[in-house]
Amino acid sequence: MLAALSIRDVVLIERLDLVLDAGLTVLTGETGAGKSILLDSLGLALGARSEQGLVRSGAEQASVAAVFHPALDHPAFALLSEQGIDAEGEIVLRRIVSRDGRSRAFVNDQPVGAALLKRLGALLVEVQGQGDQMGLADPAGHLALLDATGVDPALRMRVAADFKAWRETQTALREAEEAIVAARRDEDWLRHATDELTTLAPQPGEEDALATQRQRLQQGERRAEAVAAALAELTPRDRRSAGPAAALRSASRALQRLGNAETSEAAPALAALERAEEALSEAETLLERLASDIEADPRLLEQAEERLFALRAAARKYNVLVQDLPALLTNFRERLATLETGTAHVAALIQATEAARGMYVQSSRALSAARAEAAHRLESTIAVELPPLKLERARFVVAVDLVAESAWSGTGADNVRFLIATNPGQTPGPLGKIASGGELSRLLLALKVVLAGGSPVPTLVFDEVDSGIGGATAAAVGDRLSRVAERVQVLLVTHSPQVAARGATHWRVAKLAHAGHAETRVDVLLGQERQEEIARMLAGEVITDAARAAAASLMGAA
Q1: Is 129 a residue whose pLDDT tops 70?
Q2: pLDDT tens digits for 170-224?
Q3: Residues 270, 252: contact at Cβ < 8 Å?
């Protein structure tokens, strides 16, 4: 429900803060006092078109904030969640209009577009006014309202499920047919590509394995070259060149030719030469062993590089990563297989689609029949409500028509419209085309009496729904407004004392002169003040005791 309304610098309102209650709130006051300004201000917060004329003279901008406390499962919270706007129990719609007519919109202090503000406003408040009917007058909502009068929810869910299954089989059929067409168009290329990739036979993870192998082989080749060079220095292939081992042996023989005395003096040198010879022999053995352990096969390296280059060339050709080549080959094979098995698959999908369509037709026909019964019940119920509202000659019709197959949806195959004929013999027409705004307002009130529980909108605003009526008809309007207000919050602008007496909350709107300019103010009336206001509505400028007594009687009857 609408919990609060704050208005700043709108036309004749400088500053106004209103707190609202559940039930029926009536707004009364003399013509021109500013009741329409209140509704315009609320409309501004709900996303209505902004105008620079709304800004109060002398002010730079006007602002309106409306605070709502909807039920926790209200659709407005889902809409806000889709938009990434946090809302926990409270929704604040705010609109600021500058003097040049430009406006800004906010929801819970987050800036939003005017379109989102309007969508939220339509979920939270429904306005029924003279010449400006919304909600029930919009045919787009008639189907849901009819369903809410007693159409089996399980049947509606079954229709939605059958429609989804039918659409899914249609999609699968379309994709299968498109795949066959594409495969036939590309058949020669597909066969060539499949043969090429089959010959290449790419394996998952092969590129990484080959790259690792190539690196290992390249490193082994470099090591083998280094070891071979070292061995070549120790054992030169040119026999005419004396290697280090031969040089050591020659040096030892030369020292051994010395005499005994001299040899003893050269013993340390001989020992050093022997150690060097042994170390050289050990180094040669180690190098030969290392050479035998090194994996340095130029043929293997060449094969690894050729394979790696072939894989990367294929990846470039088909514009994929090397690692995706196996999956690409699988895809090509499946597309070719489609040519062989696709016809049978399409035939099966055609049968499945027809079966799914048949299920949908069956369930949607059952739903159409249920809606026809609900329409008859609604027509009968509304017919009872019309005579007390001075619409005894009016005829309300719920038209349930089958739509073309192209318009079938998850809600069924029906188009639901609420129609009205206000005179005998007249062809029923759309609610919004009724000539008399007063008649339409009262008809919409009758509909609200019956349908209020089926609408998610928690707040209704009626602008002079009682225009042009009085006496018993006005009393009937007041009675029905009270009944609607038992289920939803109702705000009502009225000139009828019979209707005003029904209000649970009574606001009086007045225009006062203040500091040389006019200003609109709103007072909450209780007890004697309220009786006096209703008496004024009965008697006019001069309030008589009889009017006061009649006002007291109306308040007591309410």
Answers
A1: no
A2: 999 999 888 888 777 877 888 899 999 999 999 888 888 888 877 777 766 677 6
A3: yes
With beta carbons less than 8 A apart as the criterion, state whether 231 and 285 touch. Answer: no
Compute the C-alpha angle 1/473/449, nearest 5°: 35
pLDDT band at 5 (very low <50, low <70, confident <90, very high): very high
Contacts of 307 (CB under 8 A, 6+ apart): 206, 210
Which stretches does DSSP call E strand in 391-497?
395-402, 414-421, 429-430, 459-463, 489-493
pLDDT at 435: 46
Q: Which CATH number fits domain 2-148+386-524: 3.40.830.10, 3.40.190.10, 3.40.50.300, 3.40.50.10420?
A: 3.40.50.300
Residues in the chain, overall count = 558
Could you give the CA distance from residue 107 to residue 390 in angstroms, rounded to a whole number?
Answer: 42
Name the residue ranges covered by the structural domains of the chain: 2-148+386-524, 154-364
The CB-based long-range contact list for 202-208 (8 Å cut-off, 24+ gap) reads 202/311, 202/314, 202/322, 202/325, 202/326, 202/329, 203/326, 204/323, 204/326, 205/323, 206/307, 206/311, 206/322, 207/308, 207/311, 207/312, 207/322, 207/323
Of 86-95, 280-289, 399-408, 454-463, minimum mean pLDDT range: 280-289
According to DSSP, the β-strands at 13-19 and 459-463 are: unpaired
Mean pLDDT of the chain: 84
Tens of pLDDT, residue by residue over 248-274, are 777 777 777 776 655 567 778 778 877
Residue appearing with tokens 């289920």: 487
Q: Under a CB-based contact definition with an 8 Å cutoff, are residues 438 and 467 in contact?
A: yes
- How far is it, in rounded angstroms, from Cα 296 to Cα 223? 8
Amino acid at 397: V
3-state SS assignment for residue 459: strand
Runs of H (alpha helix) within 237-394 = 244-256, 260-293, 298-317, 325-385
Sheet containing 24-28: order of strands: 125-129, 459-463, 489-493, 24-28, 505-514, 517-524
56 — phi, psi (to 5°)? Answer: -60, 145
The whole model's pTM is what?
0.62
Strand, coil or helix: what is 7? strand
Indicate the DSSP class of residue 296.
-
Q: Whole-angstrom distance between the N-terminal and C-terminal Cα of the chain?
A: 23
Helix ranges restricted to H, 437-496: 437-451, 471-485
